[in-house]
């Protein structure tokens, strides 16, 4: 019979056993030892145990070199870490954390043995990120003392710890490990038991979609990764991250998520199975989506899929000296500024002379801020502004070599504009749309020169963001594609190639992730604050999903999600009702003062 758990029966968790001394287990042991805990490291492999000791010695030596640790303190840390190959070494631990391979059979065996060994008041924690904590707890002799304690890799650096409760877990046990996590300098987030929890639950769906996008040959691995790094500020692209995590690990997590949710977005992309079964599991094997210098290396080497130097564009670029920008909003102004700073003569056309003049004045203010920040000289700013000519009619585009539209995200409005540009612009001029989600080919078909129409999706703010998605339709000619890539290089932007389908690369991967975050809140699985914290601390995201939704605008987000759902017909892409309700209520984010959170009105 299990010993009752009360607030007073818990030990202060001074001695912690870590079962499994792979990369994660070793990292957790280091964190615990650094925080003054007595750490019992256990692994059936003597080699793994020896490697863990060596890793702690190396990590603490680096800390001494950097002045973060004294030599005496280092000796204390090392003395607190003892390794064993027998699970009986955990018998006197206050807390046992298992981080053995992601297999029910292996974990259940460990828990069965621990049940017979540890003290009645000990807490047992699983480090799983994919398997059911409830299932592990239910088969334990002490289910109220079993919970999930999910650290992130590398454990010494990553601040997030997900504390996972099952319906059987005692609140006192949760409080004890939460207090421990705080004492370790971590940010604990309380979550319920479902595959992936918060951070991985959102992250792995996104990674899976990226793998499927690559498998469909929609974009190259380099362009997918560059798009998400440059377009979203992520520390790594999704395919490189899959290689780091391990393709086989990702497949295991996704299979668990799909079993629980039956959401097709979580059904592992076939390429994950193919790579796993071929032993191409990522960095650890030396090859996954990319090829590495050797197993365990982070250095990518060229292989048969590496694009040639100079990019994939074929055809001879058309000369571009002058550019027309249609629109008067923030995006149009930013694009005009980018071209003017790069030395192009720019015609900035709006519906009225006042709007065009206001847009040019906005650019002048932006250039002045760049001067104030030391990013450009007064003379360079003045020269850039002089290159911009405001106009109140698209007739002013008669002699431009490239016309870029940046008007409202409304297909009928854009089609009418392209029909007008077709009549005004000279033969040979390239016509580009900055749409983020609408079909480029529809704009092309509104003209008599569909081969000269292409997507050129800048990101906001255009002067700061390096990414441009170059969107070819089935009608776009090679020389137009080559022209836009050459222009991007002259602008010092990073072009990524993709086909003409909803969301292109960035929005097609970003907005389902945001939508899934909304569903988590809608289902009362986690709070806004916990989800935002989880993705910033556990995923390295510059903003949490709800921070980002409020910045982008809930109405804009809903419109893009509707486009994605309409094109791909996947039930998992249907916008979350909570998002629709907030938009209907006029809660659109920062611009209205209220979205998912309250904001000061500007």
From TrEMBL:
Q: Where is the 3-hydroxyacyl-CoA dehydrogenase C-terminal domain?
A: 196-292, 503-598
Q: In which pathway does it act?
A: Lipid metabolism; butanoate metabolism
Q: What is the lineage of its organism?
A: Bacteria, Bacillati, Actinomycetota, Actinomycetes, Kitasatosporales
Q: Which domain of life is it from?
A: Bacteria
Q: What NCBIfam families does the annotation carry? A: PRK07819.1 (NF005875)
Pfam families, per database record: 3HCDH, 3HCDH_N
Q: What is this protein called?
A: 3-hydroxybutyryl-CoA dehydrogenase
Taking every annotated instance into account, which residue ranges of this chain make up the domain 3-hydroxyacyl-CoA dehydrogenase NAD binding?
15-193, 323-500
Checking InterPro entries in the record gives: 3-OHacyl-CoA_DH_NAD-bd, 3HC_DH_C, 6-PGluconate_DH-like_C_sf, 6PGD_dom2, NAD(P)-bd_dom_sf
Q: Which family does it belong to?
A: Belongs to the 3-hydroxyacyl-CoA dehydrogenase family.
Recite the UniProt keywords alphabetically.
Oxidoreductase
């Amino acid at each position: 019979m299990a010993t009752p758990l009360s607030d007073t029966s818990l030990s202060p968790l001074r001695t912690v056993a870590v079962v499994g001394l792979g990369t994660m287990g070793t990292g957790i042991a280091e964190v615990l030892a650094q925080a003054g805990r007595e750490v019992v490291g256990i692994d059936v492999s003597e080699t793994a145990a020896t490697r863990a000791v060596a890793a702690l010695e190396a990590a603490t030596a680096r800390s001494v070199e950097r002045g973060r640790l004294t030599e005496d303190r280092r000796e204390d840390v090392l003395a607190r870490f003892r390794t064993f190959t027998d699970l009986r070494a955990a018998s006197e631990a206050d807390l046992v954390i298992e981080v053995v391979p992601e297999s029910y059979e292996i974990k259940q065996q460990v828990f069965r043995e621990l049940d017979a060994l540890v003290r009645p008041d000990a807490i047992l924690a699983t480090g799983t990120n994919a398997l059911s904590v409830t299932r592990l707890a239910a088969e334990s002799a002490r289910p109220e003392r079993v919970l999930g304690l999910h650290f992130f890799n590398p454990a010494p650096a990553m601040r997030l710890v997900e504390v996972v409760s099952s319906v059987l877990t005692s609140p006192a046990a949760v409080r004890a490990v939460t207090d421990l996590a705080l004492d370790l300098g971590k940010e604990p987030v309380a979550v319920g038991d479902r595959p992936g929890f918060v951070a991985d639950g959102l992250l792995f769906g996104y990674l899976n979609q990226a793998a499927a996008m690559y498998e469909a040959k929609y974009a190259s691995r380099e362009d997918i990764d560059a798009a998400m790094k440059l377009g979203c500020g992520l520390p790594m692209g999704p395919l490189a991250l899959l290689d780091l995590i391990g393709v086989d690990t990702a497949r295991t997590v996704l299979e668990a998520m799909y079993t629980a949710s039956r959401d097709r977005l979580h059904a592992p992309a076939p390429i994950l199975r193919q790579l796993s079964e071929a032993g191409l599991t990522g960095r650890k094997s030396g090859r996954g989506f990319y090829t590495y210098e050797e197993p365990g290396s982070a250095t990518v080497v060229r292989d048969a899929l590496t694009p040639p130097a100079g990019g994939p564009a074929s055809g001879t670029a058309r000369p571009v000296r002058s550019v027309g920008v249609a629109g008067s909003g923030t995006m149009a102004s930013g694009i005009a500024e980018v071209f003017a700073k790069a030395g192009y003569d720019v015609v900035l056309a709006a519906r009225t002379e006042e709007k065009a003049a206001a847009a040019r004045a906005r650019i002048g203010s932006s250039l002045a801020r760049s001067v104030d920040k030391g990013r450009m000289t007064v003379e360079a700013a003045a020269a850039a502004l002089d290159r911009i000519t405001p106009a109140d009619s698209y007739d002013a585009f008669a002699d431009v070599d490239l016309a870029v539209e940046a008007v409202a995200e409304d297909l009928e409005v854009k089609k009418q504009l392209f029909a007008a540009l077709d009549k005004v612009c000279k033969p040979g001029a390239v016509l580009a749309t900055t749409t983020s989600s609408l079909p480029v080919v529809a704009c092309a078909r509104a003209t008599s020169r569909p081969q000269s129409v292409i997507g050129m999706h800048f990101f906001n703010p255009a002067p700061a963001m390096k990414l441009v998605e170059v969107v070819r339709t089935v009608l776009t000619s090679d020389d137009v594609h080559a022209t836009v890539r050459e222009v991007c290089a002259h602008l010092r932007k990073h072009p990524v190639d993709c086909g003409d389908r909803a969301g292109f690369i960035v929005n097609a991967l970003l907005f389902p992730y945001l939508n899934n975050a909304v569903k988590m809140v809608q289902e009362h699985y986690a709070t806004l604050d916990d989800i935002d914290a989880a993705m910033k601390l556990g995923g390295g995201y510059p903003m949490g999903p709800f921070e980002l939704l409020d910045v982008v605008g809930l109405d804009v987000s809903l419109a893009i999600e509707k486009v994605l759902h309409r094109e791909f017909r996947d039930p998992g892409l249907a916008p979350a009702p909570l998002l629709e309700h907030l938009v209907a209520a006029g809660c659109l984010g920062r611009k209205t003062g209220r979205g998912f959170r309250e904001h000061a009105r500007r």
